[in-house]
Write a structure and sequence with these properties.
Pfam families: Polysacc_synt_3. Belongs to the polysaccharide synthase family. It is found in: Cell membrane. The protein is mainly alpha-helical. It folds into 2 domains: about 1-225, no CATH class; about 240-484, no CATH class. It is built from 20 helices and no strands. It has helices spanning about 5-30, 40-60, 60-70, 75-105, 110-120, 120-135, 140-165, 170-190, 205-225, 230-235, 240-275, 280-305, 310-315, 325-340, 345-350, 355-375, 380-405, 410-435, 445-465, 470-480. α6 runs parallel beside α8 (about 170-190). The chain starts with a helix and ends with a helix.
C-alpha cells in the first residue's frame, strides 16, 4: 500500500472510528444521567479540567517532536519514555497531595478523595502516550480505530454495570479509567514492534526533542486553559450542580461540532499544505472548506437550538430539563466555532505557528474578561458570553491570521457561509417560535420532534434547492473526489 492509499484508508478508518466513538460516548452519558446527579457531573467536570490541563503540560512536546523527527533510535525513545513516565508519576503524586486544597477552593469535600482515583488516568497514559504517536506516525490507522472503538465500548459496559450496582460517581470515573487502560496497553504492546523499551534513560538524549516541542506545548497549554476557563470559573462561582448542568450542555454541542470538524480538518490540512505557497489556491480551498462545514453544521446546530428540550429529554431525562436552555444558547456558539475552528490549518500549512501562539494568547485574555464579568450574573449570561467571544474572535482571526497569511477579503470569507447562514435564520427563527408555542398542540414530545423536525428538514431542502442548488452540488462533488 503506497502513501496515498494509506492516507485514504486512514481517513476512512479515522472517520468511522470518530463517529462510532462519539455515539458510544453519548450513549454512555444517556446511561449515567439516569443514575448520577447534576452535582456529580460538575465534580467530574472539575477533575477532568485539571486532568486535561495536566496532560497538556506534562507532554512537554515529546509527541510533537517524535512526529517531526525522521529517525529515532531505541535509546532515544527509551529516554523519552522513562522521562515522560517519571513526569506523569510525579505530577500524579503532587496533584494527589494537592487534592484537599483544590477541594477547599471549590468547596467540594469529595474532590479530595475522588481526584487521586481519577488521576490514575495520568499514570496509565504514561505507559502508552508516546506509543500512540508512533502508531500515528507509522499510519496504523486501522489499529488505532479498532482500539478506540473497543475501549469506548468496554467503557460503556463498565459504566452500565457499576451504575446499576449503585456505584454512583465512581461508575463514571472507573469507566473512564478502563478506557484509558485499554488504549494505553494496546499502544504499548503494538508499539514494541517499532521501539522495544529498554531500561535506559539519558537527559542528553531528550534535549533535542524538548527544544522541538516546547513552543508547541506552550500554545497547547494556553489554548486548553482558554477553552476550559468557563469550567474553572463556573465551578468556583456557581457550584458543582450548576457546573454539571453547563458541562452537559456544552459537551453535547461540542461533540456534534467537533465530530464533523475533526474529520474534515484531517483531510483539509494535507490539501492546504499541498500548495501552501499559492495564496490563490489556499483562498479558494479554504472557502470551500468553510462552505462545506457550514452546510453541515449550521442546520445541525439550528436543529439543536430549536429542539433542545426534546433532545435533552430523550438523552438525559426529565430531571436534566434545565440543560435545554443552555444547549439552545451554546448551539449558536457551536455555529461560530464550526467556522472558526479550521483557522489553525492555515497557520500550520503556512508554517506560522508563532501567529497561532499570539492568537491563542489574545483569545485567553478576551475569554478571561468576558467569563469573569458574566459570572457575576447568571449561568445563561455566561453561555451568552461564549457566543459574544466567538463573534469577537471571528473578526480577530480573520485580520490576524486569514487575511495576513492568505489575503482572503472579509466579504469573500463571509460569502463562503452567508448563504446557508441566511437560510438557517429564515428557517430557524419561525420554527423556534412554532415549536416553543407548539402551534399544532401536539402533546407527545417525541411526536413533536418527529412532526416539527420533518417540517424543518423539508423547509431546509426547499430553500437549499431554490437558492443554493448549484453551489451545493459543486461542493459535494469536490469532497467526494477526496473520498471522505
Amino acid at each position: 500500500m503506497n502513501l496515498k492509499e494509506k492516507a485514504i484508508s486512514g481517513a476512512k478508518w479515522t472517520s468511522m472510528a470518530t463517529v462510532v466513538v462519539v455515539l458510544i460516548q453519548v450513549f454512555r452519558l444517556m446511561i449515567l444521567t439516569r443514575f448520577l446527579d447534576k452535582e456529580e457531573f460538575g465534580i467530574v467536570a472539575i477533575i477532568t479540567f485539571i486532568l486535561g490541563l495536566t496532560y497538556t503540560f506534562s507532554d512537554i512536546g515529546f509527541s510533537v517532536a517524535i512526529m517531526h523527527t525522521k529517525h529515532i533510535d531505541d535509546k532515544e525513545f527509551s529516554s523519552l519514555f522513562w522521562s515522560q513516565f517519571l513526569i506523569f508519576s510525579l505530577i500524579y503524586i503532587a496533584l494527589s497531595f494537592s487534592a484537599p486544597w483544590i477541594a477547599s477552593f471549590y468547596n467540594e469535600v469529595s474532590i479530595s478523595y475522588l481526584m487521586p482515583i481519577a488521576l490514575i488516568d495520568l499514570v496509565l497514559s504514561g505507559i502508552g502516550k508516546l506509543y500512540d504517536t508512533v502508531l500515528q506516525k507509522t499510519m496504523q490507522f486501522k489499529k488505532i480505530a479498532l482500539r478506540n472503538i473497543i475501549s469506548a465500548f468496554c467503557s460503556v459496559l463498565v459504566a452500565l454495570i457499576l451504575a446499576v450496582h449503585g456505584f454512583g460517581i465512581y461508575s463514571m470515573i472507573i469507566s473512564t479509567l478502563s478506557q484509558t487502560l485499554i488504549n494505553n496497553l494496546w499502544n504499548f504492546l503494538l508499539g514494541q514492534q517499532q521501539y522495544k523499551i529498554k531500561l535506559f534513560c539519558s537527559i542528553s538524549k531528550i534535549k533535542p526533542f524538548f527544544r522541538i516541542g516546547i513552543y508547541q506545548t506552550g500554545t497547547q497549554i494556553i489554548d486548553y486553559f482558554c477553552s476550559k476557563l468557563d469550567i474553572l470559573i463556573i465551578g468556583k462561582f456557581f457550584g458543582s450542580e450548576i457546573l454539571g448542568v453547563y458541562s452537559l450542555a456544552k459537551e453535547l454541542v461540542l461533540k456534534l461540532v467537533l465530530i464533523i470538524n475533526s474529520i474534515v480538518n484531517k483531510v483539509a490540512l494535507p490539501i492546504l499544505s499541498y500548495n501552501n505557497d499559492n495564496n490563490h489556491f489556499l483562498r479558494t480551498q479554504y472557502c470551500k472548506i468553510i462552505n462545506f462545514l457550514s452546510l453541515i453544521n449550521f442546520p445541525i446546530n439550528t436543529f439543536l437550538c430549536i429542539f433542545s428540550y426534546h433532545i435533552v429529554f430523550l438523552l438525559y431525562g426529565q430531571k436534566y430539563s434545565d440543560v435545554a436552555p443552555l444547549v439552545s444558547i451554546l448551539s449558536i456558539y457551536g455555529i461560530m466555532l464550526s467556522i472558526g475552528n479550521p483557522v489553525g490549518n492555515i497557520t500550520i500549512a503556512k508554517g506560522r505557528t508563532d501567529i497561532s501562539f499570539k492568537y491563542v494568547l489574545l483569545r485567553s485574555i478576551i475569554s478571561i474578561v468576558l467569563i469573569t464579568i458574566s459570572s457575576f450574573y447568571s449561568i445563561r449570561i455566561v453561555a451568552w458570553s461564549q457566543v459574544i467571544m466567538m463573534i469577537i474572535l471571528f473578526a480577530i482571526a480573520w485580520r490576524m491570521i486569514i487575511y495576513r497569511l492568505i489575503q482572503l477579503p472579509i466579504l469573500n470569507y463571509i460569502k463562503s457561509f452567508s448563504g446557508i447562514g441566511l437560510i438557517s435564520l429564515a428557517v430557524g427563527i419561525p420554527f423556534f417560535i412554532i415549536v416553543h408555542y407548539n402551534i399544532f398542540y401536539i402533546d407527545n414530545l417525541i411526536f413533536q420532534l418527529i412532526v416539527y423536525g420533518i417540517m424543518l428538514l423539508l423547509s431546509y431542502i426547499i430553500l437549499l434547492n431554490f437558492f443554493m442548488k448549484k453551489e451545493l452540488l459543486i461542493i459535494l462533488k469536490e469532497f467526494i473526489k477526496i473520498k471522505l
